[in-house]
Amino acid sequence: MTRFQNPTDGISQEALAGLIAEAVQQALTQHGVVLDAQALVSAGAIAGAVAAALPFLPQAQRLEIGSFKGEWTALASDLLRTAADRIARGTIDAGSAGETPAARTGKPAFQLLAEQAPDLQSMLIEDWAGEVAGSTYLEENFRIPRSTLHRWQRRGEVVALRKGGRKHVFPLAQFVDGRPAPGISEVLSAIANPRLAWFWLIRPSLELDGRIPIEMLRQDMVEEVVRVARAFS
Predict the structure, then answer these.
(1) What is the pTM assigned to this prediction?
(2) 100 vs 40, 97, 103, 186, CA distance in Å?
(3) What are the φ/ψ torsions at residue 205 (nearest 5 degrees)?
């Protein structure tokens, strides 16, 4: 086991940082924090790197950090100001600062997305996919008949995430007025793996100026989202 491997669940530090970064970007966007796309990516990357480093520290260091009762906000602000000053003076290489993972590795964006599939497969759906529900809940609360839901699923018109054996659950954010948001089927045609498709749909996308694809689809902004999804594939 290397220092980059979590002994409890096997997820790498880099993969964990990436998942946290995406969650932070999504939270900032959903709460109306106004940042340009580059700053949004940087904010997520910084938060992800810091949070993901903690589980991989020796226990003694984790305990020391846990005992800190100071002002984390002020400490973080000081850290970022110091980093910005050092970058400006050239004492930190800014060549990769704020770059996307694709830019740093030279790999296509969708290849990097696909490489996260094993981590997504091992994670609980509720931990990353947002609110999900089964066919009974959708029938009772969204008035979507089971037969209709299953027909959409067979035709690739709705995101269905396998949970357990043969059971599927459906992310609630994809539904608008009792139907899948327009463009869902086109995205699934481009990104055939439902988990990857939904993971992409709920993340801020640089190719969409930091906007979240599923929110754009819910607003009938289909053409641009589908174009980017097809470019990934």
Answers:
(1) 0.56
(2) 11, 9, 5, 25
(3) -115, 125
Q: How far is CA 32 from CA 29, 39, 198, in A?
A: 5, 14, 22
CA dihedral 169, 175, 177, 179 (to 10 degrees): -70
Q: Which two tokens stand for residue 143?
A: 């008035």
Count of positions (residues) in the chain: 233
- DSSP β-bridge partners for residue 132: 171
DSSP state of 179: E
Mean pLDDT of 198-206: 87
Q: What angle do CA 35, 119, 183 make, to 5 degrees?
A: 60
Question: Does the structure show a pLDDT above 80 at 107?
Answer: no
Between the two ends of the chain, the Cα-to-Cα distance in Å is 34
